[in-house]
Amino acid sequence: MSHQLASGDRVVVTGASGFIGSAVTRALLRRGARVVALTEPGAVTSNLDGLDVERHNVDITNVEDLKGSFEGARFCFHLAARFGFWPKDPSGFYAVNVGGSQNVVREATSAGVERIVYTSTVATLGLWRTKSGRPSTEDDVADLSHLYGNYKKTKYVAEHEVLRLAAQGAPVVLVLPTMPHGPYDHRPTPSGKVVLDYLNGRMPGYVDTQMNVAHVDDLALGHLLALERGAQGESYICGGENVSMARLLQILAAVTGLAPSERRFPSSFPMIAGRLSQFIEGDLMHRQPTVPLEAAQMSTTNMSFDDAKARRELGYVSRPAATALYDSARWFVENGYVRAERAAQLEWHAPQ
Questions:
Q1: How many domains does the chain have?
Q2: Whether the model pTM is above 0.85
Q3: Strands 235-238 and 205-207, sheet pairing
């Protein structure tokens, strides 16, 4: 069966107002699709402002809420997920990421949707060999002890449950995005917060680690490629460029004209800060820690990935990290996220 997206196709996007979700929505609109944007009740939906979409507030943890959402839809992109550090009630992660995903896949399949693109995450993959210089692929199985925090744990379980449904006939293909950067990161995401902290002068130094930097719009196009060219039940990493934290900060300095952050901290530094913050603010004061332990654990992990499978089988391509970081920085500045005194020091240098 051909899954070629055609102008006028009705396509449901869950989590449509999110960072990657809104990028997928914009990509679909450019292809002429009629997008049904499902958003969580109470969610910030400014990323959908000005877009010609059919909006519905839907609680995906409630099957009754989903009834009728997929009527007449040809495709579905399921991007809705709960993300965050140190939740007061971790049960919400399981309800949304696991139960909600089961509900979406089951309802879409029952409604006759031809293909469901499920957005997982590279956080479900193993990082066994990244310290020795080999990026992880779709075949690297996670060490369960490295699934820090509720987000990673529930996305790991959710991926298993989605694949179980795929084995039962659900028309599912999986996309595993790496670290997105670019415009419309209103939250911001943890990857975007690195850029924002640098812009605001809150990045005194760095830890020696590595990450995969991808432009959010490239990730969106990767989702469309997975829809049209991906194989049933297969997983595809969509990423960009593997860069060290030192290199990432050098790129930001080059494109913004701001002074680089050159001080290197030992890997024990964020872990000590995270444990102290967790104990004092989290355990004693019962508020979100300034340095969440989960974030500290992530910052000391080499998160490099190889997206060769998506490039080979889907025709996926991506822009350099410098372009993604430049677009991210420009958006934060233009939308008032950066302190005026810091913004006044900027000298923009677009990457060539």
A1: 1
A2: yes
A3: unpaired
